[in-house]
């Protein structure tokens, strides 16, 4: 299976390549990118440096143009597609059908991967994207059980990639209606959930408080880890109790499932985290490279304790889950 790693900056890209990523995925420094955080992503000469570094090491580079084009601004997304093609990248990661159609017609020889933002969860949807837009690969949403992933692998007309590690989203893969409601900025159009311009941190006598558009979403005691402030993982008072009412802050970790995912026919494991540091890219890539190399053609995978220790340290709330993969009710 191919190891696809995140790169939100040139140092992160180099770290991922050096640690053994088979492919890295990046985004431009604009709102065509669903991880459009301030201070991150690539533009100008750094884009060519990134492509050159990846090619020099005989790896692959994908560009995520995975937000949805707003009315009257499709040319902006078309320009992003053209720019990626001119750079000589190996694939585009797309979600919007208008952008997909443009890429398919203008650059038919450039591989197109359906973004997780496209939320294709059944063979009919995959067939449609394959027939109309010639996608070569689809990244499955993090809402499917392992049984559903196996079933889709048997029926899919295209390669399937799944998330192996990183943050979980309780919404329809990035379409965070909670964040949209609270800030008035849709992640699918403006490029990120909980935009930094709406986040406010404040030390108080009760602890470190975090507010999103002035609404208190969490309060941390001294020494308590404070994660990225998303509404879905905030703590709220319900019936007199304060707890994570919607979702616990935890990260996805499917390393235990690697033999099953490989046997099912999954072609690539994706690590989440383009908003994270170069140190994160180095650590998670190194651990997953070791795991995939050890797995090889073996029927089981012996997971080293130090791998788990590294992943736990960079996980939300220092805890991990296999999330929807284990939900038998699905």
Q: What features would you describe in this structure?
A:
The protein starts with a strand and ends in a 9-residue tail after the last strand. Strand 3, helix 3 (74-87) and strand 4 (91-94) form a beta-alpha-beta unit. The mean pLDDT is 91. It contains eleven helices and 15 strands. By secondary structure, it is of the alpha/beta class. It has an eight-stranded parallel barrel with strand order 1-2-3-4-5-6-7-14, surrounded by six helices. It folds into two domains: 2-168 and 250-326, Copper homeostasis (CutC) domain (TIM Barrel, Alpha-Beta Barrel); 177-244, no CATH class. The protein has helices at residues 10-18, 45-56, 74-87, 97-106, 123-133, 146-155, 177-183, 187-190, 258-264, 278-295, 305-313, and strands at 2-6, 23-26, 60-65, 91-94, 111-114, 137-139, 159-167, 199-204, 207-212, 215-220, 236-238, 241-243, 251-253, 268-271, 320-321. Helix 1 (10-18) runs parallel beside helix 2 (45-56), helix 1 (10-18) runs parallel beside helix 10 (278-295) and helix 3 crosses helix 4. The chain is 34% helix and 21% strand. [4Fe-4S] cluster binds at residues 169, 176, 193, 232. Pfam families: Peptidase_U32. Its cofactor is [4Fe-4S] cluster. Required for O(2)-independent ubiquinone (coenzyme Q) biosynthesis. Together with UbiV, is essential for the C6-hydroxylation reaction in the oxygen-independent ubiquinone biosynthesis pathway.
């Amino acid at each position: 299976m191919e190891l696809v790693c995140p790169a939100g900056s040139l140092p992160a890209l180099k770290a991922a390549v050096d640690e053994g990523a088979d492919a890295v995925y990046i985004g431009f420094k604009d709102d065509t990118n669903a991880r459009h955080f301030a201070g991150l992503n690539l533009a100008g000469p750094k884009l060519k440096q990134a492509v050159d570094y990846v090619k020099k090491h005989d790896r692959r580079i994908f560009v995520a143009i995975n937000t949805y084009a707003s009315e009257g601004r499709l040319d902006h997304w078309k320009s992003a597609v053209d720019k990626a093609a001119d750079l000589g990248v190996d694939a585009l990661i797309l979600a919007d059908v208008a952008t997909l159609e443009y890429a398919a017609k203008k650059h038919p020889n450039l591989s197109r991967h359906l973004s997780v933002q496209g939320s294709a969860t059944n063979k009919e949807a995959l067939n449609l994207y394959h027939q109309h837009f010639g996608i070569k690969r689809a990244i499955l949403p993090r809402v499917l059980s392992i049984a559903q992933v196996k079933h889709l692998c048997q029926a899919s007309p295209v390669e399937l990639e799944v998330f192996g590690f990183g943050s979980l989203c309780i919404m329809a893969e990035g379409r965070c209606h909670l964040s949209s409601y609270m800030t008035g900025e849709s992640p699918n159009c403006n490029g990120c959930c909980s935009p930094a311009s709406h986040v406010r941190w404040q030390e108080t006598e009760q602890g470190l408080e975090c507010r999103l558009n002035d609404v208190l979403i969490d309060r941390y005691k001294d020494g308590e880890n404070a994660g990225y402030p998303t509404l879905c993982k905030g703590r709220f008072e319900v019936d007199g109790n304060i707890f994570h009412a919607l979702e616990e802050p935890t990260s996805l970790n499917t390393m235990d499932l690697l033999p099953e995912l490989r046997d099912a026919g999954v072609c690539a494991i994706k690590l989440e985290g383009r908003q994270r540091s170069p140190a994160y890219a180095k650590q998670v890539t190194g651990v997953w490279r070791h795991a995939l190399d050890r797995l090889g053609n073996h029927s089981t995978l012996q997971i080293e304790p130090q791998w788990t220790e590294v992943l736990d340290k960079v996980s939300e709330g220092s805890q991990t889950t296999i999330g929807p993969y284990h939900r038998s009710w699905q």
